[in-house]
Amino acid sequence: MTKKYDFGLVGLGVMGRNFILNVADNGFTAFGNDLDQEKVTALIEEGGDPDKVNASTNAKEFVNALNTPRKIMLLVPAGKIVDSVIDNLLPFLNKGDIIIDGGNSFFTDTDRREAYLKEKGINFFGAGVSGGAKGARKGPSIMPGGSQEAYQHVKPIFEAVSAKYNNEPCVAYLGPKSAGNYVKMVHNGIEYGLMQLTSEIYDLLKKAGNLTNEELHQTYAKWNQGRLQSFLVEITSEIFAQKDTETDGDLVDQILDKAKQKGTGKWTSQNAMDLGIPVPTIDIAVSMREISALKAERTKADELYDRPNPEEVMKKALVEKSENALYFAFIMAYAQGMHQLADASKEYGYNLNLGEIAKIWRAGCIIRAGLLADITEAFQANPELQNLLLAPSFIEKVQNTVKATRELVAYGATNGIPLPGLSNSLTYFDAYTSERLPLNLIQAQRDYFGSHTYERIDREGIFHTEWED
Ligand code: 6PG
Description:
This protein is of the alpha/beta class and 469 residues long. It has helices at 14-25, 37-47, 59-64, 80-89, 107-119, 132-138, 148-161, 179-209, 213-223, 231-241, 251-254, 264-275, 280-293, 295-304, 315-348, 354-360, 371-381, 392-415, 420-432, 439-450, and strands spanning 7-10, 30-33, 53-56, 71-74, 98-101, 123-130, 141-145, 164-165, 168-169.
């Protein structure tokens, strides 16, 4: 084969096929690889011109078809498959070639692979890709991390295929090693938080305000025209309008209330605990998926306990308060995720630019939202900003929406409607903005039973008291 291609992609599933066609649409020639002959044939057919898009099941043929340094993206399920694909390619690669893992790999796996491949002279990138199948085809948000020098070879392709916000590409070099996968992991943690919040507001509107699916459709659609404008609010509105093909009802009512997960939200939460950074909106979103999975137990328990009948409230006021509360809690979810990124950047030496990250999330990805333009500006104004809640431009946004959030959380508690994302967001805000918390008592208790010592507010030093004397 004499013709050499600009870009290689292993894994021609839905994401891979769409991504490679996007590469070809942008004027680059691309070659795909998959063990499944049907997927290879389907891609060649869909590509239309084998000089532009070609594919093979054979790893050697695939590698030899690419220009050097080779740029090979893997879009295969996270885990052991990534290692085996790398090992299959390795015998045919040359020093300086670049492998990009575009899946949701755990960041420490990326660090391990990067170190392993570095020894062999191969550059390894972990690049989060967000936006689902449609994003992969029309423009995803891409979060690459790895060697900055090697990134220059990949940059023109990624910038061309990525989503654009005001003509600016939603991709940027984020940092060394696993920076890209780490940022994508936190993106997904925020995604879990926003999804949980939109779903509990739906519950509230339905149970307290008796909104029909049509009214929910209209409400979320209207919100999407305002400050809540976001991909998730937009698709939520569309979901309420979807009719069921099996029954006369709406599809949303026929869907089993058990949410699955692939692990990225849980990893965000677990790692936040390791770092000592509070992300309670994300934590509870993971827990709620876990509680949802206990359907049989929930059904049994439901019969054992009484629950108050929600007191009906005026629709108009409820919708207005819900819009405020959702906006408030969205801010808390982003604030927590960004806080985690700021800390991880120091801990893992990623040297992240938070303004740049918010910027590449403004389009293409699942958590894209109008709010991200404001978040970008806040971090551009102060790259050292520790928490969004400390940004002057956010004070009013939060101040104006917290009252409605308090009212809804109180209503939910009194009326037995679980609003854990909302109440965790509110508690996070109340605690983070409190100069004095009651944890002095915890320090006293620790010192009482375990001589763990405490500090004082009026003098420096470490103190211990013989409490029982
Ligand atoms: C994206 C998404 C995607 C993720 C799904 C499903 O940015 O395109 O985050 O990467 O895989 O959202 O995640 P769960 O199965 O864990 O809900």
